[in-house]
Amino acid sequence: MRKIMTQPWFLLGLILLLGLGLRLYKIDIPLADHHSWRQADTAAVARNFIKEGFDFFHPQIDNMAPIAKEMVFNPQRYFLVEPPIYQTLVAGVYALFGVQEKFARLVTIGFSLAAIGFLYLLVKKLINQRVGLLAAFFMAILPYSVYYSRVVLPDMEMLFTSMAMLYCFILWLEKQTWQRFALAVLFAAWALTLKMFPLFLGIPLFYLVWRRWGFNFIRQKKLYLFLALALLPLMAWRLWITQFPEGIPANIWLFNLYGIRFRPAFFRWIFAERIGKLILGYWGLPLLVLGLMLKPSKKEGWFFYWWLLAFLAYVTVFATGNVTHDYYQIPFIPIAAVFLAKGTAWLLKASKQSFSKMISYLVIAICILFMFGFSWYEIESFYLIQGGVDLAGLAVDELLPQNALILTGDSNDATLLYNTNRYGWTGGYASNIPNEKEAFNKARERGAEYYVTTKVNELKNTEFGQFLNESKLIKETDQYVIFDIRLNRQ
């Protein structure tokens, strides 16, 4: 039994079980937690595959409001970002077990655990088994990683395919069989269609190619075939969605809106607030820095440093997106886990030679516990749901017809609209319209029948609130209010 408990596969299994247990925390809460505005659109696509029939090439959300930068209205409710592979899998689970967000979160958890497994294989291959297990451990327990490993977003799918791509590409470079080539192409093509970050992983991939062939890489015809096949699905999807510009969210602002790149606020938000505090909880920094300082072995070379450089390049290019949204730093999780693992493994080994073994172990334990504790202190609030959103959704389901068209008053956040399980418009749908009253009337002209908001206190003693009181009140609580705003009320 003791021999089994020291086997790598057994230890990895324990790490994955620990990771699974942490990710099940509050798995059944309403979809109204941190960054629910983005989760709502992803979840709506999967739910609408069940409600309206599966149509992979025309994914639809609940919101008919403009999402494109040109403020073009979107009556078909198209939502064309990445191919809806994740939503397709979620819809398949929904078809078997019913439409409940906890099942969508389980799909995300599955991808995250698979990503941890591939990270272990990758690090084991390039460094050693101990560092691989430690990297898997850190990726499994970091509170930031835990939270984003159970949200309704395709980012963990992206991490899984990225880890698999790197691992399979290394295998193919070792032994160039068509089977390994096909796997590397499959995961590369899959990853590239999901998010922009996998494009930046071309940096460490090129490093591997350079180590293998040097300047002779130019003569390797299979590399050109790999590149073409990997990029083909991405190019085809991007070409397809250009036919539906109203369904493509505005994205130019992600690069450098307001000139934020390299300004003091950029460095503060990325390296202090996000990496230092949110992800590493301050106390993970010593282990990370130690891992960065260690001279890499000949086997691993500078691969992990080029991977880190890929992340930094991604943050630099999409500067405003990374400053605005903390989930944009999800790609940092695996490479952070690697350097945390390297630093920890060195301390464990060096304690036998240069340091007190007891003190070294104590320092490691304190750093990990404090890292987890301080990061959790920041992350804990991410699980809190927006007040009244779930209750308003239940009330709409109970009081209004299934085909009712809803206008929400919670700005352009789609969370409330999603929770009503109805189609309609978000209140911020017409940001080019100068005032709430005009925006309200425009929505009503387009067919909005009921107005729902959780901003109850904000309505009181305002001009718009007084105007809204002219409509028929259906229900009001201290959490939400529902009005009948039909122009030709029966």
Description of the molecule:
The chain has 490 residues and is mainly alpha-helical. It has 2 domains: 2-382, no CATH class; 389-484. The protein is 61% helix and 4% strand. The protein has 24 helices and 5 strands. It has helices at residues 2-5, 8-23, 36-52, 85-97, 101-126, 129-141, 143-148, 155-174, 178-194, 197-200, 202-213, 221-241, 253-256, 264-279, 285-293, 303-317, 319-324, 332-350, 357-379, 389-399, 415-420, 436-445, 456-459, 463-468, and strands spanning 405-408, 423-425, 450-453, 472-476, 481-484. A 5-stranded mixed beta sheet has the order 2-1-3-5-4, with helices on both faces. β4 (472-476) and β5 form a beta hairpin. α9 packs parallel to α12 and α18 (332-350) packs antiparallel against α19 (357-379). The longest helix is centred in the first third of the chain and has 26 residues, at 101-126. Residues 430-434 have low confidence and may be disordered.
